[in-house]
Amino acid sequence: MKMKSKIYTFFIFLFLYAPIIVLIVYSFNDTVTGSRSVWGGFTLRWYRKLFEDRLIMEALRNSLIIAFSASFFATILGTIAAIGINSMKSLGRKIMMNVTNFPMVNPEIVTGVSMMLLFVFAVSLLNGRTLGMGTLIMAHITFCLPYVILSVLPKLRQMDPNLYEAAQDLGCSPFKSFWKVVLPQIMSGIITGATMAFTLSIDDFVISYFTSGTTQTLPIYIYSMTRKRISPEINALSTLLFAVVLILLLFANFRQKKAPSEKAAKGGEV
Amino acid sequence: MKKRVSALLLSAVIFLSMPMIVQAEESAPDTGVTINVYNWGEYIANGTDGSLDINAEFTRRTGIKVNYTTFDSNESLYSKLAGGGADYDVIVPSDYMVGKLKQEGFLAELNFDNIPNAGYIDENFLHPDYDAENLYSIPYTWGVVGLFYNTDYIDEVTSWSSLWDDRYQGKILMFDNPRDSFAIAQVMLSYSMNSTDENELGEAAALLKQQKPLVQAYVMDQIFDKMAGGEAWIAPYYSGDAAILVESNDNIQFVIPEEGTNYFVDALCIPKTSTKKEYAEAYINFLCDPEISAENVSYIGYATPESAAKEYMDEEIVENPIFYPDQETLEKTEVFTNLPESTSLLMDRLWAEVKMGGPGESVVLVLIILAFLATYIAIIIYKRKKRKKGFL
């Protein structure tokens, strides 16, 4: 029985990770045609070319700027929203949760097109402005928001509400007691939410495609290569991105795991 | 915690500033102007593999910055322009899309006084069907559609009919877009590629349906892998991408079939919405400089419309009939023009039928969806009833 479940797990992981492994392997493939199936020897050429290619680097820079700012703002807004939702009454909370969850289940293409229409309309009112980095960041904040709220809310629910009041009883101002008491307790949720927002933002294609105007993000750039051929530089870049995202996720999980033991340790000190 | 955040920020700053490596050569003063250029993906020399970085060179010489972005198909370009919200200054649509954009009033007339290098364009590229007055577009590159085949398995190919040869069953690839695929069928039937006759289109569709059992896959850029790996033996594709495949594989040949073929041009245009038209014209002028054009097409692989540029290029390429077919071959080619809405809709519908095997499938799909819905509703009702019973 144990053997069987092990084999089953193995196949599940193989299914999940085989494409990524192939992608990583072929980023080292030495070919002229940029082949994705014929192995021609080991090379680091694609990594070197990647850093020489100004267009890819520019697209990557745009993607990173958007991902950093979108996850930053989404985290702040999401945390504030989560605190608000947490202190609502049952009915209000239910309604708010549904409203915030809706963008998650809404097909991306609908979100993308409707945002484009809204932005184009708004832009036509502000003469001479066009879609671009600003609208991209706004769109990304929008679809990242529910994920932040969802990862912060459980932390708030776990928290003892009396602690906040106790801090005020002991002379903290409301803001200070939030800063010193509430924030440290929900920090792991906030960081998880921020990491999630970042990874979602950096690989979003559909919504970005409609709201980008004349700004190009990395996924859009990669897609535009499909008429000619997708250069193995993209394999190299994807490998690097995969490594970065993997590290970020490990970091987030590590934090989540560590959080309870930290609390226990602190409790021990007192 | 703080340390970690600052380390993260620091690495971000380093990462973001990395692409800003500036070449410190004597350069024109910064004009503070940025033009938005929208071109096909991988369609300009970008400085890798020892090529000239065209956009950087333009900025160095003129002080005009280039915000260079890319698209994957004429239709993406069209939807971007029609959707609004993006103000491009230079775009590169193909022949028929130039016609469509011109017809719908998206293009601005070019001021040829600002584009003196347009004089280098060869006579036979002027006044094309899609822009007969030659007011809106300047050719950027051109090419033809031809056949790749693997000489290990196929002796010689001269005709499109090899794509219908059942000896090569399961080893044939076809274009994954209606226009290019229908063009092949229409050439075989000696009809025009720009036909609007419903019967002719119907016959072409029938021919494509007949071919379907022999076709391994309908693909675009995957043909490089499939042909190089020997997975497929014969496939149609654009000549500009031929070089790399033929050069790196001794057993792959490229031929332009005797029946004739599609000849395509990608042209430089300026949308009407551009607010920096003069700067855009400066950019077009720069691309038409024979030396720049030579650098550019040597990297891209497609052909230049300027004879003057050929002097700066390798003789091997200029004399290669893959890149520059002789006049006799060119006479049998036809360029796409913009089809009326009804014809493109018909073509799309017929193409869907070719690929999916008739409209019958959509009925099955609807039935499956309905079945799912019914089961879902049944489960919900069942659960509700159960819950109510539980309360009682």
Question: Can you give a write-up of this model?
Answer:
The complex is a heterodimer of chains A (270) and B (392). Chain A folds into 2 domains: 43 residues; 212 residues, MetI-like fold. Helix content of chain A is 80%, strand content 0%. Chain A is built from 11 helices and no strands. In chain A, helix 3 packs parallel to helix 6. The longest helix of chain A has 38 residues. The radius of gyration of chain A is 23 Å and the shape is globular. Chain B is an alpha/beta fold and 392 residues long. Chain B has 3 domains: 177 residues, D-Maltodextrin-Binding Protein, domain 2; 135 residues, D-Maltodextrin-Binding Protein, domain 2; 32 residues. In chain B, the strands form 3 sheets. In chain B, strands 4, 7, 8 and 9 form a 4-stranded antiparallel beta sheet that branches. Chain B has a 3-stranded parallel beta sheet with strand order 2-1-3. A two-stranded parallel ribbon of chain B has the order 5-6. The longest helix of chain B has 32 residues. About 2% of the residues of chain B have low confidence. Classes of the chains: A mainly alpha (270), B alpha/beta (392). Chains A and B meet through helix 2, helix 3, helix 5 and helix 10 of A and helix 1, strand 1, strand 2, helix 7 and helix 8 of B.
